[in-house]
């Protein structure tokens, strides 16, 4: 008997798979960039951007650190240009990205690096300011944050393999060829959960999101970029280890707490928060990523793929249900990119 068909709101499966195939097709180009960087040699990597890009890089930095000894830093682009960084030298590689290709701080930081003789890498779309000025560019115009991760993984994890530190890269990259089919199944599994969460809690005046490890950057991004920017919801993002040093005092009968349990070495930190919530929180949701492993992808890659999974079920599914119940378009902004500020 085949899988039961799930009708997902605001989701076009064929378009999603087509876009995923396009990203996968960029693998040789992205790996070629990694090979050039490896042959050239480098002292360290700087992942830089602003907004959601910085949040994504926060999680990518964790993945790189967990699977290689490459010195890697994640720095906000605006701060980097003002403060500099003692570890940023001419032999550093600065890696960035922008879906629009014209994010002011991102374009500016690449120019800033070029003025200092520092090589830059960018993933962005064609005919944009960023595409025109970075030293190494891969042109990708895609939606879905999971595609952003996959694109950068083809560079970052390939670099780790070239150093002899991630021998499973070939297997990982091979399994990514069909990862979008697996992610569709993950979406389908989470769909009724997303519908329930949004229906029950879309009117909450305040909510707290908790997570750790390789998905901490994504937990922060969902609260900031989706719930705050796109839904105007007052939220708080706190990491599981920091939850017990302040935020726990806000837990009461009126506070919604959503905990994301990861699948990496930091999972015990999430379980500690879960134990506390089970004792003291009246309103709580536990999203356990171990229940949403990607079919067709070896479990040994679960930590690497966990940001992709989190994004595909939250930004990719929960956000659509939130919009459906609030009636507030995800595309509407009062201030962001509406005028100069």
Question: Would you write up a description of this structure?
Answer:
The protein is α/β, with parallel strands linked by helices. It folds into 2 domains: 13-167, Rossmann fold (3-Layer(aba) Sandwich), CATH 3.40.50.10490; 179-326, Rossmann fold (3-Layer(aba) Sandwich). Helices cover 50% and strands 15% of the residues. The strands form 2 sheets. The chain has a 5-stranded parallel β-sheet with strand order 2-1-3-4-5, with helices on both faces. The protein has a 4-stranded parallel β-sheet with strand order 7-6-8-9, sandwiched between helices. Strand 6, helix 10 and strand 7 form a beta-alpha-beta unit. Helix 1 crosses helix 9 (179-201). It is globular, with a radius of gyration of 20 Å. The protein starts with 12 loop residues before the first helix and ends in a 15-residue tail after the last helix.
């Amino acid at each position: 008997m085949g899988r039961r068909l799930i009708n997902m709101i605001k989701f076009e499966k064929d378009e999603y798979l087509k876009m995923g195939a396009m990203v996968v097709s960029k693998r040789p180009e992205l790996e070629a960039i990694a090979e050039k960087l490896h042959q050239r040699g480098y002292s360290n990597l700087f992942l830089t951007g602003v907004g959601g890009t910085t949040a994504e890089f926060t999680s990518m930095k964790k993945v790189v650190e967990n699977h290689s000894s490459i010195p890697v830093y994640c720095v906000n682009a605006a701060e980097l240009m003002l403060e500099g960084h003692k570890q940023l030298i001419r032999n550093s590689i600065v890696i960035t990205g922008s879906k629009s290709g014209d994010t002011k701080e991102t374009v500016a930081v690449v120019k800033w690096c070029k003025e200092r003789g520092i090589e830059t890498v960018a993933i962005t779309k064609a005919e944009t300011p960023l595409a025109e000025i970075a030293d190494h560019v891969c042109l990708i115009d895609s939606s879905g944050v999971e595609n952003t991760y996959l694109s950068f993984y083809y560079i970052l994890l390939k670099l780790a393999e070239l150093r002899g530190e991630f021998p499973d890269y070939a297997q990982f990259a091979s399994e990514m060829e069909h990862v979008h089919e697996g992610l569709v199944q993950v979406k389908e599994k989470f769909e009724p959960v997303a519908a329930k969460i949004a229906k029950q809690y879309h009117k909450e005046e305040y909510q707290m999101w908790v997570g750790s490890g390789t998905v901490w950057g994504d937990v922060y991004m969902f609260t900031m970029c989706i719930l705050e920017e796109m839904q105007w919801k007052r939220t708080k993002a706190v990491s599981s280890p920091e939850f017990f040093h302040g935020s726990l005092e806000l837990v009461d009968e009126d506070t919604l707490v959503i905990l994301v349990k990861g699948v990496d070495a930091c999972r015990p930190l999430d379980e500690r928060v879960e134990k506390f919530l089970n004792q003291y929180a009246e309103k709580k949701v536990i999203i356990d990523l171990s229940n949403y492993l990607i079919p067709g992808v070896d479990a040994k890659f679960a930590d690497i793929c966990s940001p992709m999974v989190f994004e595909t079920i939250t930004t990719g599914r929960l956000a659509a249900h939130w919009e459906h119940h609030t009636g507030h378009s995800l595309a509407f902004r009062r201030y962001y990119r509406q005028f100069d500020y």
